[in-house]
Amino acid sequence: xxxxxxxxxxxxxxxxxxxxxxxxxxxxxxxGMVGESHLAVVxxxxxxxxxAEFFRQRLEDILDRPVSKGLADKQRSxxxxxxxxxxxxxxxxxxxxxxxxxxxxxxxxxVAQQCRERGxxxxxxxxxxxxxxxxxxxxxTQPSIDAVLLANTISQTAEFVSxxxxxxxxxxxxxxxxxxxxxxMPDKRFP
Length: 191
Prior knowledge:
The chain is of the alpha/beta class. It has helices at about 5-10, 25-35, 50-65, 105-115, 135-140, 160-165, 175-185, and strands at about 40-45, 70-75, 80-90, 95-100, 120-130, 145-150, 170. It contains 7 helices and 7 strands, in the order ααβαβββαβαβαβα.
């Protein structure tokens, strides 16, 4: 589910594999929570731009209306981060920052702040894997972040869920796995 490095994944196995993504589940949930507000999908870095674009297109299909896009990136040089790049118009939008995982939450907090500084009315951060758990809380509880969406690929502690009360939604992606099994192994019977 939502592998971090697709090339490495494809080269790691000598058997059939299926790439799974949570775009549909995230898209349907976002569509239900944003109403008619103008949306922008923001990639937190250049390496994730294609993933964000796929999600943006899927969201447009679900909503049957245009969805803007944005791109953030940071320059790393000799262990320092001297500047930030942001491209796109999020003014007046609900900005959805999409990534495959949240570890420390630093990137999400930085990009959420950039979106706010550029006029975003609301900021939602979404990631398939909540890897960081409680170590990400200082960043995910920043006032620039209104909502956090995670898939249920990694169980979260009660402390994490409680600290993000009112902001956190964990989405069930089990149907994606079930559908993949059904397509890949249609003649197999499961109890």
